[in-house]
Every structure is written in structure tokens, then in C-alpha cells.
Specification:
mainly alpha, about 75% helix, about 0% strand, globular
């Protein structure tokens, strides 16, 4: 696997376009950008929560990571829905346990 740095600074409209493409690489890029840059925290949370149900581990991992960024940047998340959703992902994809635990730590620290 080759790792290539990509600037995650994508505006809202471009993120929506990338998500709509459905292409794995585009969705991952959009989710990370949303976590790091989206000014509308509620919209960002809603989008990332939607992608927690992805069957693709890389997409689910990106959504998880983005939720941690949203918690850090906006200081709030709906923990009543996000935390159970993260537990559900952990049951479906045990390999993401470390990413999930890091995100839960961010949520607890920043919200």
C-alpha cells in the first residue's frame, strides 16, 4: 500500500460532490475534510454518522476519525446517538477498535 499526502482542505460543496460520487477514495477524502474543515458541526456529524454503517472498513474508519475531529473542533456531539453507533461498528468491525477508542477519547475530552 502506498501512502500519499493529500490536502484535506475541501469546501462544503466539493465534499458533497465527492460523497455523491460514491467512489471509495472520494468518500474517504470528503469525510476527513468534513471532520477537519466543515463549519456546520451538526451537518458534519450527521454525514459522518451516516457513513458509520458503511461495509467498507476504510470508509467507516474515516467517518470515525472525522467524528473525533468534529468533537475537538466544535466541542459537542450528540453522544446519545454517536456512542451507541460507534459500539455497533466495533461489533461489526473489531479491527477498528483502536480507531474507535481514540475517537471516544476525543469525544470525552472535548465535549
Amino acid at each position: 500500500m502506498s501512502l500519499t499526502y493529500q490536502d484535506p482542505s475541501i469546501d462544503h460543496d466539493e465534499s458533497v460532490r465527492l460523497l455523491a460520487s460514491g467512489a471509495q477514495e472520494n468518500v474517504i477524502c470528503a469525510l476527513i475534510s468534513i471532520g477537519l474543515n466543515e463549519p456546520d458541526g451538526s451537518w458534519a456529524e450527521e454525514i459522518c454518522a451516516k457513513y458509520l454503517s458503511s461495509e467498507t472498513e476504510a470508509i467507516a474508519a474515516s467517518a470515525i476519525t472525522a467524528l473525533g475531529h468534529i468533537a475537538r473542533r466544535h466541542g459537542r456531539l450528540n453522544t446519545e446517538t454517536v456512542l451507541p453507533a460507534l459500539e455497533n461498528v466495533k461489533r461489526r468491525m473489531p479491527s477498528l477498535q483502536g480507531v474507535i477508542e481514540d475517537t471516544i477519547d476525543d469525544i470525552e475530552m472535548f465535549t
